[in-house]
Amino acid sequence: MLNIENLNVHYGVIHALKDVKIEVKEGQIVSLIGSNGAGKTTLLKTISGLLKSTSGSIVYLDKDILSVSAQLLPTMGLVQVPEGRRIFSGLTVYENLLMGAYLRKDKEGIKEDLDKIYKRFEILYNRRNQDAATLSGGEQQMLAISRALMARPKLLLLDEPSMGLAPLLVREIFNIIKEINATGTTILLVEQNAMQALKIADQAYVLETGTIVLGGTGAELLSSPEVQKVYLGG
Q1: Under DSSP, is residue 172 helix (H, G, I), strand (E, B) or coil?
Q2: Looking at 12-53, which runs of residues are DSSP E strands?
Q3: Going by fewer Cβ within 10 Å, which terminus of the chain is more open, N or C?
Q4: Does some domain include residue 29?
């Protein structure tokens, strides 16, 4: 579904991504782990068209999308949930959800998807008329993911969905990710919680200072002595 080959990205003289190569197959959860500053968010932003690459290719559904504008990618089913949730304060929960469907014209389909969201996340239904800024951190993350689902993604990019959440909510967010994947949505997950990210991953990669240094199944990376030492506390 997604093939990235020899991707290079620069911030001025800083070489942020160096010949990155990853593959995401349809139906998979692929996790990308790494420390702060490794380039994980840079990679997602480049896939989403928010940053321009220096060289390399990003092929999504057999089309090189490096020349496709960021505004058009959601119409192709490629949708990102950004780091920090980025919900729209001043808009209600309901209005935030509608923003996810902004490019859609199928009113009946939008209504159906809203109903599905409200059934899955009862708290969003109960607070649908509240300013989204009044939600807790965990509720805002549910809203951010739900807003992305309103675009009917084929490939969902998740950037640090568990950041800043209490452990109980972290488990809930990872359960939600597995549920979304089970309904047929492919997921590329960037996450600092390496243990949880690798547990749910079909495939996984380790990114260090802009370079992919390890790749394999989630189970293989969980059992890797190097990954255990650096990312799993032992």
Answers
A1: helix
A2: 14-24, 29-33
A3: C
A4: yes
Residues 6+ apart with CB under 8 A from 183: none
d(CA 132, CA 140): 7
Asked if the structure places residue 105 within a domain, the reply is no
Range of the domain at 180: 2-86+152-231
Torsion of CA 120, 122, 124, 126, to 10 degrees: 160
Per-residue pLDDT of the chain (234 residues; tens, 9 = 90+): 999 999 999 999 999 999 999 999 999 999 999 988 899 999 999 999 999 999 999 999 999 999 999 999 999 999 999 887 788 989 999 999 999 998 888 999 999 999 999 998 999 999 999 999 999 988 999 999 999 999 999 999 999 998 888 888 888 899 999 999 999 999 999 998 999 999 999 999 999 999 999 999 999 999 999 999 988 875
Query: Token digits for 232?
Result: 């799993």
The type of residue at 222 is L
Q: In this structure, is residue 146 part of a structural domain?
A: no
Q: Rounded distance, CA 162 to CA 9, Å? A: 26
- In the DSSP assignment, the letter for residue 75 is G
User: Does this model's pTM top 0.85?
Assistant: yes
List the beta bridge partners of residue 189. 31, 158
